[in-house]
Amino acid sequence: SLLNKPKSEMTPEELQKREEEEFNTGPLSVLTQSKTTLKHCNMVMENVKEMWTEVPKINKDCYISKMFLRGDSVIVVLRNPLIAGK
Prior knowledge:
Layout: H1 12-25, E1 36-37, E2 43-54, E3 58-69
Antiparallel strand pairs: 1-2, 2-3
C-alpha cells in the first residue's frame, strides 16, 4: 500500500496516486463536499451539523443548511461516517 511507503522512496507516479488517494478518502476528502474553497481555507458548506460541549458538560448540536466558514476559525472538519459512501 502506498500509505505505508515513505514518500522519499516513491516515484512521481506513486506520489501522484497517493495524493489522489488521500484527497479522495483521507481528511482532505471533506473539501470535495464543500461548494467552494480559497487559499485561506474559507469554505461554503451545505447540510452542516455543528457540535460543541458547554459547561457543565452538556453536548449540543445545530443543523445548518448553508454555511460560510472562515478558515481561521476552523478547528476540525469531518465527514459524516453515516453518509461517507454517498
